[in-house]
Design a protein that fits this description.
about 325 residues; alpha+beta; 11 helices
């Protein structure tokens, strides 16, 4: 007598279907942002929970632990660390080109210092974060059930801001990844206005036309896009096709301090560069004799994350030689 609950299946097709379901779940629900609002589900749920709680830019700050608890209990049943880490990044001016959350307290630093525990910090929505939720209660977007079907949440935010472009995004999914740099909001808006004025030939607008307005990425920590010989079209290729690479370097200037001595001042760092690690690396190279001509190295950056690294050179040292090294 056969057990009818046991079915014969093709293991190849079952593995394919199961893996595809898993891959799509990771792509859509975790790793990659939605092109419409530029947010991953955890970002969207944090902002919507803050909106639902009334923690708006015009109001007061609330304890981060209170906000994290709201997100976990209602919309995002994962670890509190994952939610708080995401929330912290949304409040860091060196991580986000335009911060979506206004944090109060220790939210970390460009030196790699971590944020204080969620019970010590407070947060509210930033002005631009509120623009992502404009008119959300006016049937502008579809709502779906939350994880247990007791509440509803937006499938995407209305977003009056082109957030995917201005804040960028990065993520690694299954067989797929994205790494979109942030751009200047003013430049993106100018390009959008141009496209609206050229609406009758929208499909015919060329990349070079839009590059009159969008000069390239605009990172929160600054830096200079460096073009190597033969790479003149790399930036254009990245903007035109979505595939390409850019080389970002620190912004420096030279100060003459007299008596034949000068110093190199680093005022902007490449995006996601840890300042403390950079200083340690320079000091290590100098101590091993691989970087010559240095007399002193110190960090004069302020508490507002305004970068100023001072590299004093020995008397008679050639600035160009040291810069080359």
């Amino acid at each position: 007598m056969t057990d009818r609950s046991i079915q014969a299946i093709n293991i190849e097709s079952e593995m394919r279907d199961a893996y595809l379901s898993y891959a799509m779940s990771v792509i859509v629900s975790r790793a990659l942002p939605d092109a419409r609002d530029g947010l991953k589900p955890v970002h969207r749920r944090i902002l919507y929970a803050m909106h639902d709680m009334g923690v708006h830019a015009s109001g007061g700050h609330k304890k981060s632990a209170r906000i994290v608890g709201e997100v976990l209990g209602k919309y995002h049943p994962h670890g509190d660390g994952a939610v708080y880490d995401t929330m912290v990044r949304m409040a860091q001016d060196f991580s986000m080109r335009y911060m979506l959350i206004d944090g109060q307290g220790n939210f970390g630093s460009i030196d790699g210092d971590g944020a204080a525990a969620m019970r010590y910090t407070e947060a509210r929505m930033a002005d631009i974060g509120g623009e992502l939720l404009i008119d959300i209660n006016k049937e502008t977007v579809d709502f779906v059930d939350n994880f247990d079907g007791t509440l509803s949440e937006p499938s995407v935010l209305p977003s009056m801001v082109p957030n995917l472009l201005v804040n960028g995004a990065s993520g690694i999914a299954v067989g797929m990844s994205t790494n979109i740099p942030p751009h200047n909001l003013g430049e993106i808006c100018d390009a959008l206005v141009y496209m609206l004025r050229q609406w009758n030939r929208l499909d015919g607008i060329e990349v070079d036309e839009l590059m009159q307005f969008v000069k390239g990425p605009d990172f929160p920590t600054g830096g200079v896009i460096y073009k190597m010989r033969g790479e003149e079209d790399m930036l254009r290729s990245a903007l035109a096709t979505g595939r390409g690479k850019i080389t970002l370097r620190a912004k420096v200037h030279i100060e003459d301090i007299g008596r034949g001595k000068s110093r190199i001042i680093v005022s902007e760092l490449p995006f996601q560069t840890n300042k403390t690690t950079l200083i340690e690396r320079i000091a290590s190279l100098a101590s091993r004799g691989k970087l010559e001509g240095l007399a002193d190295l110190r960090d004069e950056s302020d508490r507002q994350n305004s970068v100023r690294l001072v590299i004093e050179l020995q008397r008679g040292a050639e600035v160009t030689d040291v810069m080359g090294q």
